[in-house]
Write a structure and sequence with these properties.
The protein is of the alpha/beta class. It contains 21 helices and 26 strands.
């Protein structure tokens, strides 16, 4: 049995050992992805210098927003060697006739202006240029593919997927190395005949995994040939030098967005806030948007540098701005509109933990969920009320089936299991999904089978496998904070707490009130590895013990009693046969 009562130091990332690193003076230099994105930097270099026979397309899995496109653009600027040759074309219009010649000067109308360009969103004319008429005069305007001719164009996959005609025309021009002019209006031809122009262009497509997946379905053969890499979202912390690298990167972000200097005292608070974003004490986010937003929000409180107090004030103000909905949820619990018990013992009832995400709301919220289970004579089936009412998702149904498999294996018998049960999330009026409540549901089921009450001062979260092993779940910080807030508003007793998977300890980054309560032993957290570890904490009896009463022996005794009563379950008209079995 493995029950780990967590110390307060485990509830936050360890920053005490890095004090000397925080006091270094980090240079405020332009953002260089080579610092934290070696795979991406190497892939870009390979793409720039690959042989002409290679694919002219490259895929980068990243957020397809302007800050990310700008990062890739800046990285390419340091890789590509500027060309002195004039690349492109010159178009002349005389008496309604358009002629093309190779560009001789950089100011020729269709000479390339840059060896690398990017754009987050564009329309047909921005990408391919257009023929305009003003009075009796015609003019040709270049698009991005002309301005980047001979170089690299960085585009968002989302832009091309939402406008497929752009993608197909772009692919045709890039692969054929020739740009054919066309009318933006398919129903009307070009007013003048325009000669095609040579095109030597490489394209980097940036998108998230879903966008790249859609492109793969659209162009499976092309995707097989392209160069692929990813923007790493987090920096894995293995040693002290990784913390120094992250601090240097954060200073580069501050420099890039022209934000105030970061004081040494700010780094621990920045790391705590960052771990809340990454969800892992051993990973720090590298997203420039996330980091710049945290620093920007602290800037109004900077005096003049960004300090720990500035970060804390910014976090508190942001929480206050976004907390109206969570306060309404807590008020419903306080007023008894949502029934949650945090005192006493009840058979077949347990406090599970849920995460609520409302459309349009920026913050996930934790809320306790009362899960109840009732048992009756039957054929061993576990009825999932949520599933029957069509309010349960597939993952939730999977968790219930895993619970049933565990009970069947744990109480293996030659005879049919004589009990059926039903499990329900009380006062749940929307869809329930995920398997993170399967540990709580299993404990409620075992309580109902053994007729042993559960301590309502303890909440439970975690998923289980068919062998009863407790597995990692998501949203652990929000779940713990949701139950703590309920207990704190009702006054902490010193016996309240949360049971969580031991593997989730590395994901903890809890608010200061919980850390202080755990430090003062007014609230507790236990990390466990198996359902057998949770039951003694909840019920107060060992799961298995040959020398004294246990939970398993109580279940087995009840099964024996149910088996002995089988004769009483004969149809009424035949119960006279029991007379012969007396004695």
């Amino acid at each position: 049995m493995t029950i780990n009562r967590l110390e307060w130091q485990q509830l936050l990332p360890n920053t005490a050992d890095y004090k000397n690193l925080f006091e270094r003076e980090y240079r405020r230099e332009p953002l260089d992805i080579a610092l934290t994105q070696p795979r991406l930097k190497k892939s870009l270099a390979t793409f720039c210098h690959q042989h002409a026979s290679g694919s002219p397309f490259m895929l980068v899995k990243a957020v397809d927003s302007r800050p990310y496109l700008a990062l890739i653009h800046d990285a390419l600027q340091s890789i590509i060697s500027p060309k002195n040759d004039v690349i492109g074309s010159r178009y002349d219009i005389n008496n309604g006739v358009i002629t093309r010649s190779d560009a001789q000067h950089r100011d020729d109308n269709f000479a390339a202006t840059s060896h690398c360009l990017y754009e987050e969103w564009l329309e047909t004319e921005q990408l391919f240029g257009c023929l305009r008429k003003q009075g009796d005069q015609y003019t040709l305007e270049p698009g991005l593919i002309h301005k980047a001719n001979g170089g690299i164009l960085i585009l968002s996959v989302r832009t091309l997927l939402t406008q497929p005609h752009l993608w197909f025309r772009l692919k045709q021009a890039v692969t054929s190395k020739r740009f054919q002019w066309f009318s933006a209006d398919d129903t009307r031809p070009l007013a003048l005949s325009i000669p095609a122009m040579p095109l030597d262009l490489k394209v980097i497509l940036v998108g998230d995994r879903y966008g790249l997946g859609e492109l793969q379905e659209l162009e499976p053969e092309l995707i097989e040939q392209v160069l692929y890499t990813e923007f790493e979202t987090d920096l894995l912390i293995n040693e002290e030098s990784d913390i120094a690298t992250w601090c240097e990167y954060v200073n580069s972000v501050a420099c890039h967005y022209q934000l105030p200097v970061i004081d040494a005292s700010a780094y621990p608070s920045l790391i705590n806030a960052s771990v809340r974003k990454s969800g892992d004490q051993e990973k720090l986010p590298l997203c420039p948007q996330v980091l710049s937003q945290m620093l920007s929000e602290a800037t109004p409180f900077a005096s003049p540098s960004i300090t720990a107090d500035a970060i804390t004030q910014a976090e508190q103000e942001k929480l206050w701005r976004e907390s109206y909905l969570s306060e309404m949820v807590q008020d419903d619990i306080d007023l008894g509109q949502v029934h949650i018990e945090t005192d006493g013992f009840v058979i077949g009832q347990i406090n599970g933990l849920s995460v609520l995400e409302y459309p349009g709301h920026p913050r996930a919220m934790g809320e306790p969920s009362r899960i109840s289970c009732v048992v009756h004579l039957g054929d061993g089936e576990i009825m999932d009320v949520e599933r029957k009412a069509e309010l349960g998702g597939n993952l939730h149904a999977k968790g219930i089936m895993i619970m049933q498999a565990f009970i069947a294996a744990e109480l293996a018998s030659d005879q049919q299991f004589p009990f059926s049960s039903s499990i329900v999330f009380e006062q749940s009026y929307g869809e329930v999904d995920g398997d993170s409540a399967s540990l709580a549901g299993l404990c409620a089921l075992i309580s109902a089978l053994s007729l042993q009450p559960i301590n309502q001062q303890i909440a439970v979260t975690g998923s289980v496998d068919q062998f009863g092993n407790v597995q990692t779940i998501g949203g652990i910080n929000e779940k713990i904070e949701g139950f703590f807030d309920v207990c704190n508003r009702r006054e902490l007793t010193g016996s309240q707490g949360v049971i969580l998977p031991l593997t989730n300890v590395r994901h903890l980054c809890l608010k200061s009130e919980i850390v202080e309560a755990v430090k003062q032993e007014r609230f507790h957290l236990w990390g466990i590895e198996h359902v057998h570890d949770a039951l003694p904490l909840l019920i107060g009896l060992p799961y298995v013990d040959e020398n004294k009463p246990s939970i398993l022996s109580a279940i087995q005794e009840r099964i024996l009693q149910a088996g002995g009563n089988d004769r009483n379950r004969l149809p009424w008209a035949l119960r006279w046969l029991n007379w012969f079995n007396r004695g």
